[in-house]
User: Fold this.
Amino acid sequence: MKRPAIPKAKKHLGQNFLIDDYVIAQIIQLIKPHHTDHIIEIGPGAGALTEQLVHTKAAITAIEVDRDLARTLTEHYADAPNFKLHHADIMNFDLGTLQKQSTGWKIVGNLPYNIATPLIMDLVTHRSLWSEMIFMLQKEVALRLTAKASTRSYGRLSIMAQRQADITYKFEVSAASFSPPPKVESAIVQFQSLDVKRNPKIDVYFEKIVRLAFSTRRKTLTNSLRNLLPADVIEQADIDPRSRAENLTIEEYEKLALKALEVSKTLL
Ligand code: SAM
Assistant:
């Protein structure tokens, strides 16, 4: 079946439709859809990826906020039993309902760039939902997701995402591959879920410490963590309290979270 025609793009919904068959094939190769897979597609749009995915007989759950596109796709795939579309805003969508249906989802999408960062922050906290995610993103976000400590792009997003997944920067996609062409550069990123079990209490401290440290990025940990961990306690975790947020590795943030949990227990 041919995919639906490319509609007029709605800018406020971040609509840049992929029109390059070679890039579509490259992304599908990365997704490696299999008929036993459960795949969530975020923002299927005019079906550039959807068309290829539906053919593999994998179970496809698509979430599209645009009423017109949602209706077109629902009608177009009315005879495909493996395709289900939710007309919904992914930012308000209850991911728990999908978790009840299955775990180990592959989540894919050429994401609307305006919601990519908060959406990924949310998805990485739902790691038990998915095994793999493959997204087209603004190149700058792709660089932040894969950045290492002490580099310019390293920040809260890098840390929170890399703590939950092995993330690989795959390839860049030219603006000419879209209609209309986006004003920013684009890249594909792949997330493979890390299978680690953690104490949820440590997760709470980890999140809090990273947030506090980056809220005053240029300040030392002594200053930024003052209300949570005094400098001498930071030292007890083998971390130099004169360090700045961007110089700490994920393992070092992990040590601080563990220390914060220990301290909280002694205060009980
Ligand atoms: N997947 C299509 C493609 O590759 O051509 C469209 C990609 S376009 C960059 C982003 C898509 O996400 C659009 O279809 C847009 O309507 C949809 N979208 C935007 N915001 C959304 C949201 N909050 N929830 C669900 N879909 C959204």
Observations:
- Residues 13-18, 42-46, 48-49, 63-66, 69, 89-91, 110, 112, 115 surround S-adenosylmethionine (CB under 6 Å).
